[in-house]
Amino acid sequence: MGISFYRNTDLCVLVFDLTSEDSFKGVEAWRNDFLQILNPPDGDEFPFVLIGNKSDREGDINVTKEQIDSYCKEHNNMPYFSVSAKEGKNLEEAFNKAADVAFTRYMKNEPDIILPDSKNLKIERKEEPKKKKCC
Q1: Domain boundaries, the chain
Q2: Neighbours of 122 (CB within 10 A)
Q3: pLDDT digit string (tens) for 99-112?
């Protein structure tokens, strides 16, 4: 993917398969490729969130906590989440953290933006249309 795809990026989420050590080893190459293409002014400080998927397959996990902790520590204490997309485990927490990190970076780079008071925001959920019953 080219620079136009990455333009104005405030965060990168790296996802690997906990059952595949090769997948984990690929994280560094993906991170480096991203940084090379985006070429952010704060290169070593650019925020990433690391996600290890397939935590539901406990007996098949081939990447150790020590490997992950070491990698994250080497890269500015990168936040890490072990998730299961299949079971929906830890996904909300991971993406909330990613949004928080991206927003923090965005506000650091755009300090003059005034946000509305969140207490006055209303979120309305649209009800799904009721299905007509058959005769």
Answers
A1: 3-110
A2: 4
A3: 999 998 888 877 55
Structure tokens at 79: 């936040």
Look at the alpha carbons of 84, 87, 89, 95 in this order and tell me if their dihedral is positive or negative.
positive
SS3 string of the chain?
Answer: CCHHHHCCCCCEEEEEECCCHHHHHHHHHHHHHHHHHHCCCCHHHCCEEEEEECCCCHHHCCCCHHHHHHHHHHCCCCCEEECECCCCECHHHHHHHHHHHHHHHHHHHCCCCCCCCHHHCCCCCCCCCCCCCCC
pTM (global) more than 0.85: no
Which structure tokens are listed for 86? 């299949």
Token code pair at residue 3: 């620079």
Q: Do 56 and 99 meet the contact criterion of CB atoms below 8 Å apart?
A: no
Question: How far, in Å, CA of 96 to CA of 90, rounded?
Answer: 10
CB 19 within 8 A of CB 53: no
- The CATH number that domain 3-110 falls under is 3.40.50.300
Task: Take residue 85 and report the two structure tokens written for it.
Answer: 């997309």
